[in-house]
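Handout, page 2. Input:
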Amino acid sequence: MTKDSLIFKMYFPAKSLTIPLETINRVDTVRTHLGKTGKAGSSLLRISYLSGDHEEAAAAWNVDHTAQWIEGIRANGRTGLFSREGNRHL
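Output:
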């Protein structure tokens, strides 16, 4: 995470996704996303954002310390986002 973007890199296949923080409209945790599940007993961090064509898109990842990711995004100015599955504002 930078001060204005989230950058996720995948090693195989090699690709990356950069999400400007200003385009994020929701952050939450989910058990599954597009067939992907979290590690045993954990959740995925899901980011919903406006893509380049101004349509909503979402992506989710297995990350350690999900709550810290959410707080980090919140600390960078995205305070109105959802935090956890079933809970509303942070």
